[in-house]
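In the current project phase, we have settled on a layout for protein records. A sample record is reproduced below.
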Amino acid sequence: MRGSSSLDSLPGKGHLDTLEIENFKSYKGFHLIGPFSRFTAIIGPNGSGKSNLMDAISFVLGERPGSLRVKKYTDLIHGAPINKPVAKKCRVTMNYKYADGRKKAFTRGVNNGVSEHLLDGQLVTGQVYAHEMESINIFIKARNFLVYQGAIENIAMKNPKERTQLFEELSRSHEFQTEYDKLKIEMTKAEDDTQHNMNKRRGIAQEKREAKMEKDEAEKYQQLKNDLAAKSTMLYLHQLFHCERLINESREQISEQKKAIANLERTKVGKIRLKLQKRIYHVKTGRKSLKIEMMQRGELNLSEEQVREYEELKDRAHRESALVQRELLTSIQVFERKEAQDRVKAKEADVQRLERQISALGQKIKETEEENKALKDNLRKIESEVVIDKSAAAEYNKELVSVIRQLSDASGDSAEGERNQKRTEALDGLKRNFPDGVFGRLVDLCQPSHKRFNIATTKILAKHMNSIVCDNEETAARAIAFLKENRYAPEVFLPNEALVVNPINEKLREIRRPAGVKLVFDVINVHHQAARKALQFVCGNSLVCENQEDAKQLAYGGTDLRDRYKAVSMDGTLFQQSGVMSGGSADLRAKSKKWDEKVVKQLREKRDDLNEKIADLQKNRRREIEVEGERSKIASSEQRLQIWKKELKNLREMQLERLQNELEGLTAELNMLPPRIANWEEKVRKSEAAVQELQTKSNEVADRIFADFCQRVGIESIRDYENREMRIKQEMEDKLRSFDDDIQKLTYEIDFVTEQDGQRKVDVEKEKVSQIEKSYKEMKSKEKAAASDLKKHTESMKEAKEVLDEKKETASRLETEWNEVKKLAQTAMKEFTKAEKELLRLESLLTKKQYERHSLLHSVKLGQLALPLKSGSMADVEYEEDDGDDSSSQSSQQSQHDGPSVSDEQIQREQHIKINYDSLPSEYKDVLIIVLIRCINYNYHFQIDDDDGVRQATNRLNVEIEELQKNVSKMNAPNLKANQRMAEVREREAESTEELENARKKAKRIRQAFEKVKTDRYRRFQDFFDPVANTIDDIYKQLSRNTSAQAFLGADNMEEPYLDGIQYNCVAPGKRFRPMDNLSGGEKTIAALALLFAVHGRNPAPFFVLDEIDAALDNTNIGKVASYICDSAREHMQIIVISLKEEFYNKADSLIGIFPYPAACTTSGVLTFDLTRFKQLGINEMTENPPASSSAAAAATAAAASH
């Protein structure tokens, strides 16, 4: 057969020249087939081996065993199926002829079960072999050169993703897929990292702002605390300064007072003692002189016997004088009783005063305990509230973290766009103005029951997702006017009353096949009843299906329009009853985020609500400061309570007990006096009666005894003598007793002054008293001598009387002088007593100020304030526990109620603390406490008043401190580690900034690489796809031989078509649009051929092998296809077809007949027949003899059969 010469005219292309087969499948031995024409038809009976020839071509072009209908390469050797291979190897050689006349032999064989490749007889690798194939546009993966038996319909029925894969193989854009996927993963990861770092940096920035706010708040709080501490320190310095000044002044005044008292002792008391001693000497001297003179002038010239008698009578008179002594003793006891009563009254007054003080102190303790109890109750309440607030804050923080994590996962934490904000503002305004008429947007009033329905429901709701649901048309009109008036964007309204809603078809809810079909209305949850009608209006009876096939079946499967439904698949592909199909999954995915945005909006609202709650709880954290304040108050109250209890114990156990003991002793002593006085009075009365009786008897005896004596002396009776003499003597004795009394009183005064005189030498004074007593005894003895001399000096009685009168005057003058001395002594004692009282007051003031200084230092220590010290340490300031020892008791007794129970050792230790007052402003130093000391002669008057300036300065500082405390309490409890947190945040910010920058650079680098690969892949894909899409309609029209035929090839994803499917739809001539799977077999074949020829026309292989593509074609369509193939073969391609239909293969340029040999194993024979000459003949005689070509084909078939 010679028909290959016509192939040389193919412009710029090579072609398959011949095919050599050796022991391949049914071809035993060596077979040379060809040369092949532009349009070669392979014919033969069924089972003769036509498809094995197709397999031979496929094998030599690189197909795998699985596509050749065998399991392994050795099965390709002739005889292997019956386990009788004729050889150990087989081979197929394709002799390819280039347009310039060059030839190349492509050989592929099986040797010992292994596939081998040869180029022009040279063994090469499979990769080199495939590369050489691709150099002549033969791509085995794309199979752009052959169509297997029965595969033509599969080509038409490929799903969109498979079509995309086909175009990727044909365009070779798949070569970029690995790098594309790798870079896309890297880019996605890099962008995720960038977004993560950006979110992290945004979070850190927010944290930084919060940390800055905390830092500013902490600094402000700390500044207030510092100001408060400074003011408190200034107040304590101010108080301590004036307290120490008063202590120093009190010490100076005490020293001066002691000196003044010493002066008093040295001057006035000494002078008074000297004067008293002089007066005693004069009294004693006068007494002695008077006694002598009286004795000298009053003595009588009696005989010894008369004197003896007189002495006897005198002795008796002395015995009777005991009555006078008893009367004196009684008077003394009465005086002692009065004095004891006065002492009892004084002690009772002291006891009453002490009891009043104890009562007042007990009331203070009771009030303080009640206040302390109230403070503790309040503290427990505040602490409970603080614990509750902390627990609530922890729960809110935990919930807030969860909400923020959900926002981050949903990418919902980004700011809303300006347009969305405007639309939100518009809706809020409508709700405010029409609260009962406007219900909200449809998307906000409902929610898909599951996320997997988001895209499908978005497709159905479409433009009505953002429509506003209202009650009626009037409200809608007023709302539209409101939008226009406020210049908001137009909105779509769904007035419920005006909507015409078709009822739900209940049968649709009973659909079981396909599985998983639901009404769209049923998969949407309605949150507001007003939205149900609007939702039903939008959804209608639309169905949602699991996949496109189910949706397509429901929309197009029924022959009756009433059995067709509007259906949408889960990926958003919508099929309508009219045949219109729409997709756009990328756009739908973007729109479906509205549901997520709704959730995000709710999460934002929840986040804001939690933030507000946490902020409110943060404001309540000032209660913790109140807790500390309450604890401080309780500590201070307990401290005061402890001090007062110790003072009360001291008053009760020490002073009150002592006074009560003394009072009991005085009372007992006072109770003992009346019986003694009564006894004494009874004895005196008895003695008086006895004396009177004795006196009467004595007078009778005396008259009898002294009768002769009276006659001799010349007196009437002895009593006249005694009356006269004894009156004189009595007067003298009275004077002597007066002198004795004066001496005794002066002695008492001297003793009293001596006792007050700083405990001078008592022994010396006692010696003086003993000398006075000795003088008194001498005077007594002299008195006896004078009495004896009285007898001798009777005559000088008159002179004695005169002398007595003089002495009386002297005694009167001495008494006057004594009274003056006594008054002077009393005045001196008053001044001395007053000076001692003032000394005690000053010492008490000093002690009080020392305790006040201790309390101030202790308060400073409790308040943890820093005092500027010159020396000493605040560690020396502490309260001592009451151990109950003697020293502590003595200290308590000494302190009495002037201050807390602090030992003298503690006060002494605190004296070493020297405070530096340089930092105290002069305005607080210059206010002085006025101390007026007026000294007039020996009178001292001390007056210490609180200065108004000090009080005003203290009040002013207290007001400032209270104001600062209020400001501090108003502030939230700050984060005291804000500076540390700020430093950490800044460090993390720097790290995150660096990480973000690195991530951005990396993402940019990867994106650039990805964009380049993406561009290359897109360009390569589109360079192939666009021409195919542009020419397929013309090819389909040519195949259909009708210009009304339509074919459309479109990508689902216009930006990156290789990622999604490619839709291929055809409209047969004279018919409406129908899905590809609803087309007839012939229509599917025509559609598939149109696609194949369009693809082949863009990147044609040098030849095209088609296996029984005419199986489903009727005669009309066979003629159309054959005509198109003939036209195409003449122009730009070599076509090899396997056909059983004469109407098709009689149009070929040459025939290759395949026939079987009778044998145990199928053996094929090959015949070739050139139909060119018959075609030329048929062309010339076409009008006269039309069936010529058919006769030629029949002749070729007969020849094959006869052979």
